[in-house]
Predict the structure.
Amino acid sequence: MKVDRRGFLGSAVAAMAAVGGCSPEKARRALAVPAEPWLEADVVVAGGGPAGVCAAVSAARMGAKTILVERFGCLGGNLTLGHVSPILGKVSPGTMADEIRRLLNANHLDAPKVMTRNGPEEHIDHEEAKGVLVKLCAEAGVTVLLCAPVLDVQMDGQRVTGLTVDTPKGLRTIRAKVVVDATGDGRVATAAGAEVKIGRDSDGATQPSTLEFVVDGVDESRGITAWGGTDPVKLPSGEEYRALCKRMNAAGELPENVTIVRLHRTFYPGERSVNATQINGIDPLNPIDLGRAEVELRGQIDQCVAFLRKYVPGFEKCRVKSSAGTLGVRETRRVMGDAMVVDDDLLVGRHYPDAVVHDAWFLIDIHNPKGGGQAEGHSHPAKPYDIRYGAFLPKGIEGLLTAGRCISGTHRAHASYRVMTPCMAMGEAAGVAAALAAKSGIVPRAVKAEAVRQALVARGVKL
């Protein structure tokens, strides 16, 4: 779908243009708040999740003056506030994903390593991670703006030249040579008028959203783990845990669309990170739906805990230790780019000479938009594949890169690359490209993929 207006302040621009008899671009400039000295940068990154943090740090390490803009009061997105754990997915060695894993594991070197069909499970202490990520940015020289959601973009023709953000001091305009959209929702690209797609082609339905949480009080001598709906782990009775979940779902002991309660280990004995709650049929871009989801999913947490206490040995005394501070959204906009990650890339393990992320891998994991479990019955295998530079370049828009789950790809491919490890590698590559463009005074589209690759290889990234 093509957005017909520019920006989320588009109605104000249109009204001012109509009343004042001026062009929309002139009206937009008149509405913009003048930049302050601390709001000028080579690179501005919107979104402080895994992709955004890596993009900002990566650009700053290239010598670019970098500002990272985050709507919440801390960095990390789903890695911290979203309570998503473990870190899933893989890419080739040497990326910032390896560095962040090392930092997150530094105080937990004795924690047992877990390997499943989904790959290695990398635990997260969500509170520690908040400090780790902000320190990483500070040491790289990134200026971090918190509580500063993006409201609009500044444009010069088809080129993005900055962002308008809402801050506790009011609206501010950040001028930038290059902008990176790592918002997850493609918020900047949409405001700039980029072409986006949402959901699957057949009906536009998106994957369901979740609130993850952590329980403690688990008896480790009896408590199980379960990484997904195909995990054959058994209970002492001999019944498979996944069969119990389906049986209790049918009996009304679990929420309507919760057919598996995933139980992942954390760094700490007696804890499990729980991925279970699910709401279908909402629009995660609609604040009313987000409020409805919060009410529904908080209730589902209570229902899932009651199920664990009543039916799962070792969980009789478990309690909620902590829960996500924001909804875990799997899928919204995908920004159409010069290149796309397509289904066949995953199925055959396709590699490209212009790849800036190499050997990305995760299962094709499409949580059912219309019910419980998986949309295709179960998750499907994928082969390690490449992500091309063009997937970060929104068609028809200059001065802008995307990174993270909003890059250009199909609905099915997105179900693999949306997880945190590929997103971190995307952020690093986008940050390199943004810094190269800013330093050369050119748009990202004019940066050669080979130049990005050379800079990444010089860092030790295997491409």
